[in-house]
Every structure is written in C-alpha cells, then in structure tokens.
Amino acid sequence: MSDNLPKVAWIGLGIMGSPMSENLIEAGYDVTGHTLERDKLERLAAAGGTAAASVAEAVRDADVVITMVPASPQVEAVAYGPDGILENVRPGALLIDMSSITPGTSVDLARAGAEKGVRVLDAPVSGGEAGAVEAVLSIMVGGERAVFDEAKPVFEALGRTIVLCGPHGSGQTVKAANQLIVAVNIQACAEAVVFLERSGVDLGAALDVLGGGLAGSTVLARKKDNFLNRDFEPGFRVDLHHKDMGIVTDAARAVGAVLPVGAVVAQLVAGLRAQGDGGLDHSALLRAVERLSGTRV
C-alpha cells in the first residue's frame, strides 16, 4: 500500500462494487469495505482489503468514501442518520456516490455533505459487470471541477472514459440518458432476434454481420451471446433497469422532455418484471418479445 494514496472506504460490494473495489486494491489503494453480505466481505478481505462491521467503522479513517448501492433509498440509508457516512466521516473527506439514483437525491446529498464539510461527487457508471471487472467503465460525474480533478486518479483505476458533465446531479442525468439508450437498444436487438429466428436465418451469422454495420453497437457486442444462448445470468438486473427507467421518465417529465419510445420500453421492462423476470439480465427483454410473439418462454 502506498503511503501517499488516499485511504478509501467502499460501501456496497455487489456485482459492480466487488470488482471495482478490487481494482482499487490492485492499483495500490488501502480499501476498507462494508456491505450486507458476509461472503462479499470475505471476498474483499481475500483480495487484500479490510472488512468493516458497519458503515461508521468503514468510513472513520477514510480520505475518500465511495458508495455503490442499488438506488436512492439505499444511498440515503448509508449516508444519513447517526450510523451513516456524514455523521462518522472526518470533515474534509471526499464522498463519491457511484450508484445510479435520481439527480435530486444527488443534489440533496451534496448539500448535506457541504454542511458537514464533506465534498461530494455523483459519479454513476456504464459498462456493466464486464466493464467493472476490466476497469473500462464510463464514469459520468457531477460536481465541482477542483473536486473532480482531485478524484481523477481514483476514477482512472476504475474506468476509461471519465467526464465531468456539470454541477451536482449532472452525472445522474447523463446516466439516466445512458439507460434510456441502452434499454431501447436491447429492445431493438431482441425484436430483431425473434424476427430473424422466425424467418429461419442463421442467428449467429446474422448478428455477426449486423454487428459490423451501422446496426452494430456496444449493446449488441456485449449481449450477443446472451441472445444466442438464452443466457440471462445477471450482469445488470431487470429490476435495476426498471428503477432506472423510472428515473429517466420522472426526470424527463420534470424538464418537459417527451420520450415516446422510452415510455414504451419502460412499460416493456415493467412487464418483464411483472412476469417474474426481475432477477434476470436486462437482455431478457428478449423473453418479453417472445411472449408477445406467442413463443413459449
């Protein structure tokens, strides 16, 4: 561990948080983590990190606190209250929330942090589990330029495309737009897959040639095997994409932006969840198209 690197507390060691925290450890950072699952704490310790029994214990000596939890309620649960981050971290610390939450929650968190002398950035990510493991995430950041510049080395251990998008909440707004594009893209791919299969075309060959043209996308490249193998082991769960479509729908309404296709896909994601597929990867939108097409799923 390097003496001149900031000490990091990591809260939330799920599908994304575990590999991300391990990338920081690999980059030489001293990482203390807390999460609700004991096996994830053991994984952190095995990777060279330190497991903490509570949020308060994890953040007490930290220079930088990073949160990576599912949604706004969990961010609020770990940030606020007597056992939360803001009451237990030292003034002058930096709090980076990498969860995908509502822009309003991020703005509120930055305001609450400022009252405690804690600098805050919202820094949600795109790239899924593979991007987290490979440390090639896209990181969209909201906050002040000076704080962003200070945090940049930490971000560089986690991702490849790191951009300050504007003031507090801007990272979340860009993430919401990202999730809109991804969901619509997966839906289009899913519809193409059902159309191609029904037409008797070699699906693997078709997806290869589509991937090389204007229809090619990171979504198609990353999810092609999911479609081909009907492998819906979660890299990013439908439940979370459902949450994100709610964020983008609400945020768009607040600013007067009309998202007609986004609204339809939000409902298709909601339908997939209502069918009991919330725990599957979001590429399982294919199952929704199959059901609509009369295929037994």
TrEMBL record:
<dbReference type="GO" id="GO:0051287">
    <property type="term" value="F:NAD binding"/>
</dbReference>
<dbReference type="GO" id="GO:0008679">
    <property type="term" value="F:2-hydroxy-3-oxopropionate reductase activity"/>
</dbReference>
<dbReference type="GO" id="GO:0050661">
    <property type="term" value="F:NADP binding"/>
</dbReference>
<feature type="active site">
    <location>
        <position position="175"/>
    </location>
</feature>
<dbReference type="InterPro" id="IPR029154">
    <property type="entry name" value="HIBADH-like_NADP-bd"/>
</dbReference>
<dbReference type="InterPro" id="IPR015815">
    <property type="entry name" value="HIBADH-related"/>
</dbReference>
<dbReference type="InterPro" id="IPR013328">
    <property type="entry name" value="6PGD_dom2"/>
</dbReference>
<dbReference type="Pfam" id="PF03446">
    <property type="entry name" value="NAD_binding_2"/>
</dbReference>
<dbReference type="InterPro" id="IPR006115">
    <property type="entry name" value="6PGDH_NADP-bd"/>
</dbReference>
<keyword id="KW-0520">NAD</keyword>
<protein>
    <submittedName>
        <fullName>2-hydroxy-3-oxopropionate reductase</fullName>
    </submittedName>
</protein>
<keyword id="KW-0560">Oxidoreductase</keyword>
<dbReference type="InterPro" id="IPR006398">
    <property type="entry name" value="Tartro_sem_red"/>
</dbReference>
<dbReference type="InterPro" id="IPR008927">
    <property type="entry name" value="6-PGluconate_DH-like_C_sf"/>
</dbReference>
<feature type="domain" description="3-hydroxyisobutyrate dehydrogenase-like NAD-binding">
    <location>
        <begin position="169"/>
        <end position="288"/>
    </location>
</feature>
<comment type="similarity">
    <text>Belongs to the HIBADH-related family.</text>
</comment>
<dbReference type="Pfam" id="PF14833">
    <property type="entry name" value="NAD_binding_11"/>
</dbReference>
<dbReference type="GO" id="GO:0046487">
    <property type="term" value="P:glyoxylate metabolic process"/>
</dbReference>
<dbReference type="InterPro" id="IPR036291">
    <property type="entry name" value="NAD(P)-bd_dom_sf"/>
</dbReference>
<feature type="domain" description="6-phosphogluconate dehydrogenase NADP-binding">
    <location>
        <begin position="7"/>
        <end position="166"/>
    </location>
</feature>
